[in-house]
Here is the input.
Amino acid sequence: MAVRIVDKVDIADYKGENPCLSCASIGRTFGISRERVRQILTDIGQKTRAIIPHYCKVCGKQIFKKVGRRYVPRMCEECKSQRIILVSCDYCGELFPRRAKLVVTLSKRGYNHTFHNYSCQQNYYWQHKKRAINDFCS
Here is the structure.
């Protein structure tokens, strides 16, 4: 059996061109073991884990994710930022970011006012309650 002499630079270049490949598949390509590929990549300072490509569900752009993590992003950062809108607080008028879907859902449920924190909500309702009491008493 002939031993194939492999240059470390060739393996590093191949891994750089194909980050989705595992060490085992690179080893099969060059005729060496997975462990030897891992050792070479570690010596050079490259990452040995394969990257699995995922795609944004909105625009179809490729999102890279490392193998072994549980969270899989469903949208790219650009699409996430487009889904956030600025809404003004009904009490103080301050603008704050909120997901557009949440605004639509809350309005469908019958929530007519938007507040950026709990104290603004309480102050708003307390003012209106005082007004209603004064109107009733006068």
Q: What stands out?
A: The helical segments are 8-17, 23-30, 34-44, 77-82, 100-108, 118-137.
